[in-house]
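TA notes, week 10

Several of you asked for a full example with nothing omitted. So below is the full record: structure tokens for the whole chain, then the designed sequence directly under it. When grading your own attempts, check the secondary structure regions first.
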């Protein structure tokens, strides 16, 4: 049983030599992918895994850097040379349902555009739209005897939200975890987390039959809900940003005319590395793995130095295709 951090870059922009945020849990020969950032499929194969190993996909939220390669698991890594009369193995997908609404204006007070006939789709509608967008390649490959169509290879499950949550109240205080799914090897639960205007946005907890557990924070500012979900977990995989480095990275020295930066975006969306330590300490987590790094170029020692004053346990900084054995946590 092991955790593989397939990619660790936080945010949509590509970074040379690095891959987008994505992880895999390998349990009894099955691999479960958590988020599908840029390069996820290639990293999955570079880790020694194949589509035959894929046991399921879990999406914390529908930002581009978490779903960029989601559909590629079915379009590119699906069933090569599959015969149409061979019953495919359906890959379960668990992710957010529809948001239900959008704010009218941007955070900078401008009237915001609205894209799409359905501007707030959940993972089911998003997947169906991808089916339609890539219909030609699926139809042609099926007729050429090379592939089964993506629709028969997955089972979509939209995760329920508590009745007091909506796009205006995105992450009310969790009083009980949301049941997501259960197998013979583990149970998955979730809580909503505050990620600026995104809804729903989840953190996931995997509890295994050997009494070990691992929690993925997803994208979130410092959250009591994460500490609640991560109570005494063996590994807390938590996103992190470095305020000093991110400010230098996103503020141009010679801003173009009309350039404005939303000053509250990072603090309302993400967790400074020091606060990761506070969440981990509150949770009693036995180990922290920093992931979804912004910026990814910050040295490991800098990340650890900012977490250490607030957390007494071991801290590791994730790297692309780094393997962690859960039994040693």
């Amino acid at each position: 049983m092991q955790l593989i951090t397939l990619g660790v870059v936080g945010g949509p922009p590509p970074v040379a030599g690095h891959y987008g945020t994505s992880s895999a849990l390998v349990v009894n020969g099955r691999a479960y992918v958590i988020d599908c950032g840029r390069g996820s499929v290639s990293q999955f194969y570079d880790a020694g895994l194949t589509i035959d190993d894929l046991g399921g996909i879990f999406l914390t939220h529908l930002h581009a850097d978490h779903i960029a390669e989601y559909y590629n698991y079915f379009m590119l890594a699906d069933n090569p040379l599959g015969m149409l009369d061979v019953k495919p193995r359906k890959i379960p997908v668990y992710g957010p349902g529809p948001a239900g609404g959008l704010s009218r204006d941007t955070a900078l007070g401008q009237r915001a555009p609205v894209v799409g006939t359905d501007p707030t789709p959940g993972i089911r509608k998003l997947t169906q739209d991808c089916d339609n967008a890539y219909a030609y390649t699926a139809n042609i490959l099926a007729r050429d005897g090379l592939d089964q169509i993506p629709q028969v290879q997955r089972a979509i499950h939209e995760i329920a939200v508590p009745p007091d949550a909506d796009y205006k109240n995105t992450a009310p205080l969790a009083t009980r975890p949301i049941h997501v799914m259960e197998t013979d090897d583990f149970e998955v639960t979730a809580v909503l987390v505050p990620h600026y205007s995104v809804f729903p946005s989840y953190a996931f907890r995997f509890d295994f039959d050997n009494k070990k557990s691992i929690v993925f924070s997803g994208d979130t500012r410092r959250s009591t809900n994460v500490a609640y979900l991560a109570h005494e977990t063996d590994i807390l995989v938590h996103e992190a940003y470095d305020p000093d480095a991110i400010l230098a990275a996103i503020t141009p020295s010679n801003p173009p005319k009309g350039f404005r930066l939303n000053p509250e975006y990072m603090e309302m969306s993400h967790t400074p590395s020091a606060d990761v330590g506070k969440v981990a300490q509150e949770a009693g987590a036995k180990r922290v793995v920093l992931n979804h790094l912004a910026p990814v170029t910050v040295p490991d020692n800098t990340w650890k130095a900012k977490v250490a004053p607030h957390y007494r346990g071991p801290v590791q900084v994730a790297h692309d295709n780094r393997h962690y054995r859960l039994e040693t946590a």
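The chain has one domain: 2-111+120-251+263-328. Use that as a sanity check on your answer.
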